[in-house]
Structure formats: structure tokens, C-alpha cells
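Appendix B, Record 12. Input sequence as logged:
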Amino acid sequence: MKGQYFSFDAVIGASIFILTLVAIMSYWYGVSGSIEQQQSMLAKEAIRIADILYSPVAVPYGVAFDWNDRRLSLEKVDSLCYGGVPPREAMDSQYEVAMEFNTRTAFICDWPIDTEIEANEIYKLRRVATFVDEDGDSETGYVDIYVYVPIPAN
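Logged structural output:
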């Protein structure tokens, strides 16, 4: 008789262990899925903004010369940075947006100017660019696009 009670206890214990393990794994899967979904939404938004930026549409949107020539106009980049329009509004984004334009040798500008990013979640996308000035001289560089969810004010 004692052996039967022991095996019954083992079956109940194993069942409780399996149920607990399933509950923990389910919770972990749900939490990691929501984090990945939020990160993927920020990534999609950053790619969308990069596509707008590299289009030839009039400022304050695209800064490329045309659809076949994706080089960036320094004049258009300057008008973005110093135009006074926040990037979130200009890019019609539901997230906060900041950009930084640099050549290999020099900093061009950041948009919005002198911004400190305080965020819980942030996605950075770097795109290589060729910047062309009004004289036709060109220099390679990069554009950093930051899409983020700011820390709420207390």
C-alpha cells in the first residue's frame, strides 16, 4: 500500500511542476513578444522615415536630388535642420524622431538642434549618404535616425 501512495504523490507533484513550468514559459513568451513587437514597430518607423528622407520630395521631407540620384543636397539638409519644424511633425510620425547628419570629416547638423534623447525604448538606424554642396563637390558620410519613445514627464 505504501508504494501506491508514493507514486500518487509523485504524479501530483509532477503535474504541479509541469503546470507551473507552462505558466512561466507562457508569461515569458508574452513579455518577450511584446518587447520585440515594440522594437519592430520602432524599426519600421525608422525605415519609413529613411525612405522619406532619401526621396526627392520638397523640403521639409526628402533631401535627395531625384529618384535615380539618391545623393543628398547639403542645402536641403540645412533647411531641414534650421527650418524650425520638429522632425516628428515633418515626418508625420507617432514616435519622437531625431536625426544627425555627418560627413566622414565633419559634423553637418542635428535635427532638432542640440537635443538630448531621454527614452526607455530607442531604435537607431544609420544610412550611408553622399552629400553634395551647391558647388557640386561631394563627400560621403552618414545619417543617423533615432526613433524613440520618450520617458514621460512626472
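Residues 11-150 form one domain.
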